[in-house]
Each structure stands twice: as C-alpha cells, then as structure tokens.
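Researcher: Structure for this, please.
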Amino acid sequence: MRARALAAVALAAIAFPSTAAAHVEIVSTEVGHEGGALFTALSPNENESQDMTGLRLTIPEGLTVESIADVPGFSGEIVRDDSGRAVALSWQGGSLPPEHVAEFTFSGALAGTDHVQLTGIQTFADGSTKQWTPEIDLAHSHGETDNVARGLAAAALVVALVAAGLATVLLRRRPGT
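Model: Predicted structure, token format:
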C-alpha cells in the first residue's frame, strides 16, 4: 500500500507541476544555419479574476527581431527606435481567460551572445499589470526534443515504480511466502 501511495504522489508531481513555477517563459527553436530562430513567449494568465489583454516584451541589445506572428484576438506590433532596431514587441487587445496560456511567437537571432534577458509585462482587463523577466539562454537550452525525452523518461520511471509496488504487494499476498 505504501508503494502505491508513493507512486501516486510521484505521478501527481510529474503530471501536475506546481503553478507557482509558472511564468512568462521564452523557448526557442533553431531554424537556420545562420543563427536564426523562432522564439515563443509562453504567457500564462495567473490572474484569478481578470482576462489578460496584452503582452509587451522589451528587446535587449544582442537580440534582433525579424518578424512577429499573429496571435488570434491580439494585434501584434514591432516597436522600433529611430535607427529602426526593434526595441519591443507588443500584442494588445486580446482576451485570455484566467488559467489559460497563450503563445506569442517571433523570429530573430542572437548576435554575439547566447544569453539575453527580456522584460515581459502582462496587462489585464482591469488595467493592472504583472512584470516578468524571461531569459533566452541558448548555452543551456536543449530544445523541445530533450523536453519530450525527459517527459517520456519520467513517465517510464513512474510506470516502473508502480510495477515494483504492485509486484511487492502481490508477492506478499502469495501463499507460502
């Protein structure tokens, strides 16, 4: 019984990670030989009572932006300085309910660095905001396929723990042992 309880707790921890760990996060997928990539800002609405109506990302030195993807319901814009360099990305006017997540994608490249920190500001229907500081760290990024492999390995571990627990219980119930 103890083994089953342990396996259930392990499964719950993997399947339902803590919402306290959720935040605006940037994931990247390399798309070219010249350092180009697709960057996706994963933006969960953690406000329990207000829809998220906008997201603005500052673009630091070292990150160039080539284009921005449309997000259903939001109007996207690349904000440029006088020299034409992208300094912010803005998606406004949408409506993302609480406990939902949206993906805001743009293409670009890191120049001369493999790590930058952005500032993300979420705006909510009541006018309030929440600030995040997501990072792009290509030196420690292992890509989506590594995340899938980790997830599969974690699931296999849970299955093995459950099987070991069941085997232990069945062996204990077996007559003559």
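Researcher: Any notable elements?
Model: Residues 18-141 form a domain with the Immunoglobulin-like fold (CATH 2.60.40.2230). The first helix runs from residue 2 to 15.
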